[in-house]
Design brief:
mainly alpha; globular; Lysozyme inhibitor LprI N-terminal domain-containing protein
Length: about 120
């Protein structure tokens, strides 16, 4: 690879938010304390590196969307509703993967100034 291309790759990598940077370190857990995990979904997230990574990334997007939300009370209500939906419906890894993808899309819509899409997660 030419040196100029390598420098561009390094610059692009440095511009990525921390959760997206590859790491050789041991992968940290999710955005919450696994010692306090009580529900089945929380325990699955704590025991699965990919789900933990998705949880950390969603936490980062959530913080940005919370700051961008036009109506803070509506944002909190919708967030609580989505969390309860996950807790009530997700009993396997595939459901959690769908939930994280759907919730990510909802939060990105908020960041783009759009209304969040309704949840499509089901059992």
């Amino acid at each position: 690879m030419p040196p100029s291309q390598a420098r561009r790759n390094e610059a692009a990598q440095a511009a990525l938010p921390a959760p997206h940077r590859p790491s050789t370190a041991i992968s940290p857990g999710p955005s919450f304390d696994c010692a306090k995990a009580r529900s089945m979904p929380e325990k699955m997230i704590c025991s699965d590196a990919e789900l933990a990574r998705l949880d950390r990334e969603l936490g980062w997007v959530y913080a940005r969307a919370k700051n961008a939300a036009a109506d803070g009370a509506a944002f909190r209500r919708q967030n609580s509703e989505e969390w309860r939906r996950r807790e009530a419906t997700c009993r396997d890894r595939e459901c959690l993967l769908r939930w994280y993808a759907n919730r990510h899309d909802q939060l990105m819509n908020i960041l783009q100034g759009q209304e969040p899409a309704p949840s499509t997660v089901s059992r």
